[in-house]
Design goal:
The protein is mainly α and 250 residues long. It has helices at residues 3-27, 35-91, 96-116, 130-140, 147-172, 180-199, 205-228, 243-246. The radius of gyration is 27 Å and the shape is rod-shaped.
Length: 250
């Protein structure tokens, strides 16, 4: 399931609802199209419209928060890598091996983040890259010779832990897809709304065009909702970050 499929499916369902409303308008007896009946239908449509608007608005707000959180986690990882490399440089020549292994870690971890976050990726258990383990081992083998080096090592270890936490948070948010029943109910609500609107609207080119544009707008909102829920792919995908380019040469 992709954002385009969700948006297209929603648009088609709403168009079906519009066609149903137009069909009912042209085939129902006049007594079913009276003003009192129209008021009741419009009142019911207003309740559904409120529910649909609230639900869609809350979902978009939640998806935007999740989208911003993942961007923040990527930035946190980038800042942690730069800080770790700088602290290791201050540590001295003994940390050159650790700095080299830090750079060797970046590529595989970046590949994992952007690959496992694709919508078509299958759920799987977390596996740390072997390069990451090599870097941690090189870090812990450092033997501080003075108080400054001891403090620098402790700070690098803490920064590495923070990077690892951000990485695990990203992994734990994988496959955070919207429940299909929720999408179906939302599409059904909008189909009923547009059926009610077209049932009592004056059918002409302008009204049909206006309803179609509204249907496309709803489908666009569903597209944005699904896209922000999968931030590593699609039009709004977080661009792949070249973390190595952020680090100074050895």
């Amino acid at each position: 399931m992709t954002a385009v499929n969700v948006a297209l499916g929603t648009f088609i369902v709403i168009l079906v609802g519009m066609c149903l409303g137009i069909f009912l308008r042209t085939n129902l007896h006049e007594r079913y199209l009276s003003d009192k009946t129209a008021e009741t239908v419009k009142l019911s449509a207003g309740v559904i419209a409120t529910l649909a608007a609230l639900t869609l608005g809350l979902l978009i707000a939640s998806a935007k928060t999740s989208y911003d959180t993942r961007i923040s986690q990527i930035r946190k990882m980038a800042a942690g890598l730069i800080l770790s490399d700088r602290l290791l440089a201050l540590y001295g020549p003994e940390a050159q091996d650790a700095r080299a292994k830090l750079r060797a870690t970046v590529g595989p971890v970046t590949d994992q983040i952007w690959t496992e976050s694709l919508p078509q990726a299958q759920p799987r258990r977390f596996e740390a890259a072997s390069e990451s383990e090599d870097y941690v081992n090189a870090l812990y083998t450092l033997s501080p010779k003075n108080d400054l080096q001891r403090r620098l090592k402790e700070r690098v270890v803490q920064t590495t832990v923070d990077i690892g936490n951000a990485r695990l948070e990203l992994f734990s948010q994988l496959n955070n897809l919207l429940p299909p029943p929720l999408l179906i109910v939302l599409a059904f609500w909008f189909a009923v709304l547009f059926a009610a609107y077209s049932m009592y609207a004056e059918i002409n080119v302008v009204s049909v065009l206006a309803l179609t544009i509204c249907a496309a707008s709803v489908a666009g909102a569903m597209f944005l909702l699904f896209q922000m829920n999968n931030p590593f792919s699609g039009l709004m995908g977080i661009p792949r970050v070249d973390f190595v380019a952020l680090l100074p040469p050895l």
